[in-house]
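Q: What does the assembly look like in three dimensions?
Context provided by user:
Components: two
Sequences:
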Amino acid sequence: MEQTKYLVVGSSHAALEAVTAIRMHDAEGSLTLLTRDTHLPYSPTVLPYVVSGRSPADSIFLRDEKFFEANRVAYKRGSALKALHAERNTAELADGSEIAYEKILLATGAAPAIPPIPGLDQVSYHVLRTLDDATKLNAAIKQSKHAVVLGAGLVGMHAAENLVKAGASVTIVEMAKQLTDGYFDATAAQMIEKAFTDNGAKILTGSRVVKLAPSAIGALLTLENGTTLEADLLLVATGVKPNMDYLAKQGGDVEHERGILVSDTMQTNVANVWAAGDCAQAKGFYSEDKVMNAILPDATEQGRIAGMAMAGDPGLKTYPGGVPLNTYHFFGRHAISVGSSRVPDGGEVVTRYDETSGRYLKAIFKDDRLLGIYGVNEFFDGGVMCQLILRQVDLSAVKERFLADPLTVGRELMSKIWR
Amino acid sequence: MGKSYNTIAFDSNKCDGCGDCMTACATIKTGTDDKARSRIQIVGSETDGFELALCRQCGDPKCVTVCPAAALTKNFDSGVIDWDASKCVDCLLCTVGCAYAGIALDAGTGHVAKCDTCDGAPACVPACPHDALTYITTSRIYNEVGGWEDLFAPGLAGCQGCNTELLMRHTLRRVGPETVLATPPGCVPGMGSVGFNGTTGTKIPVFHPLLTNTAAMLAGVKRQYKRVGRDVTALAIAGDGGASDVGFQSLSGAAERNEQILFMVVDNEGYMNTGMQRSSCTPYGAWTSTTPIGKGSGGMPSQGKTQDAKNLPLIMVNHRCEYVATASTAYMEDLYDKLDKAIQASKRGFAYLHVYSPCTTGWRFPTDQNMEVARKAVETNFVMLWEYNPKDGLHFTHSADEPLPVTEYLKAMGRFRHLSPDQISHIQGKVVENLAFVKQMAHREN
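A: Here is the predicted structure of the complete assembly.
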């Protein structure tokens, strides 16, 4: 049986960071990276730009074969993990072979969550999570005249914008009362909605599809209120769920809820098993509860921590907890959200909105400490804001100036506190 | 050995917030004078002081790891984090990743923008009217020297943070294996140059002369090598005590005879190896174990050394040596330049190199502060960097204009902690007097 000291499963941000972290401390230990994907490593986050054609599919790769050679990593593409046998430290692959490991990192990411709508299995639809999905969608968009997007998260909105720009009539159907729920607040969502409707898209929030059936051009959708829509292109973008089927097959010794439960060093409850990235459920920054924080910056952070922990790097600092961080570019405008949108008891919310410039800012404080900050067309350094949140910096002396100009005041604080 | 890179350094003490650097950057990068679009951002105020937001070209950059489009890469040749416009998707995630505001949105283009050091000639640096920005190019030395053989043993018994070890390793790498080395009693053999348990601490011939005869003995060794037709560099690395006190007659004699040797003095201003006694190079007011602080006797309190230091390098100029120079490890490019010249001069006659070498143990400062102390000595003119040869005379290699007050240097270490205002003004007076003296010599020699 093939043996390896470190086995990393997955090939996106968390996995790649773990490889780098392991190699920084252990230059020699045998390291194998396993991925079901047949392509070189890429980021799911870039896929909307492959769909739009902005990023050619062959120029998005985060690493090449040379990287793995130089770092002495046995890189196995197109090999999915079928089952984890943690009790005997082996991983069973889709082809039935097994690899024995000393330490394993599960960075298997997530897959589209398909809603249980009657008839969905009778029609053809698109999802967007892999490069192959993106290439297919890119081709389909060019042909589409009537497109429907289910779900107004960032993946759905990105695709909808591409469809609008390609000239299709586009309808976005979203269960929640607003667009980009969970990423941006109602005011920001309205600005986003207006940008879309100004460009001809149709938005149906607070609405759900109850039935689907094949039609002449593609699919016929029936909404809760009885109206129907016809689509030659249907994109299902109603969220993601972690890839962790390989645990279920073994009775689930590795504890998991919505994701794989991990400690502050990304270790699972089972010896020699770590998890990081979109498949992991780790502590949130705002409470001890374990949360899903499936965003790119957190995947790199978790991957780095897991790699250091696996290699026994004494420089390891424990995970401070996930802070939501999102950026979103729409019709030439940009939105940034850093931190929590929840206003705790005794919290303070400050907003300002300038209609002529379209600049919107919202900040949430508790005891003069920043909890979250959101901007549309208002640029501030997200990384600096995140440090202010993590360090719980007392802003009482500068709060008014901070709200007027978070960019400049944030930089001043940075240069004094952690430069 | 890892590669080192050039870098833009910022001295907030010199910045008055004029913003000329930002204008220069905006002009060259955007064709406008819009400071908001500059890649270098000066923040702060007159009262709080000014600071910098600028890409640090991190060795382990977060912006690169969070880029989903592979548009940012660390260039291991230049050290710069390159941004590829053709791959960037304007997602701004890099700005969320960077905790230092080193990459930000340029509202003029809608893309992110960051410092690329203008391909090694940053426009902001010459634009600064106060020298608050400098482009440090010392990496050239480390990259070159890193490939040379270290002729000292890997383990040496130096104090933590010792400047002399740094100097020994650099110097021997530069002079190379065709060298015979003399190390009289002092920190250098104390650290292990003459070895332990029957083996030497160097990979070249080394001997341990007396404090009194180093230059004479080395001169004889060099003459013997010449007689048998071998071209070697005869190098002494001696302390200030061994050179300026009991070793002086032999040093002066060898210089007067213009012996073909390179005599390097590591001036840590005292007999540090034997317990930090004063030497004739110990400055006025300094605490040493033989110039203590206390009640004193006969009603005269003891407040450190009561005499001024001897200016040994100037005395050596008066021997009209082939080459005389002062140097500091805080100014490595200058030091290497002088080392090269000294090696060449030693082929013709006597070359003398006086290196000021702060001593973390004897001067009482934290072990990580050695370069800072060495730099402050030069910035306050407590130490001046110059060189001399008989043809061109004496000239400064580092500007002595606009020095910081000497207290900036004195307060960096414990051996001056007790100084009274009178003592401080005595020292400041001596700094001014020394400068005038060296300037006069520079004028006369030219």
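Follow-up: Chain A has a mean pLDDT of 94.
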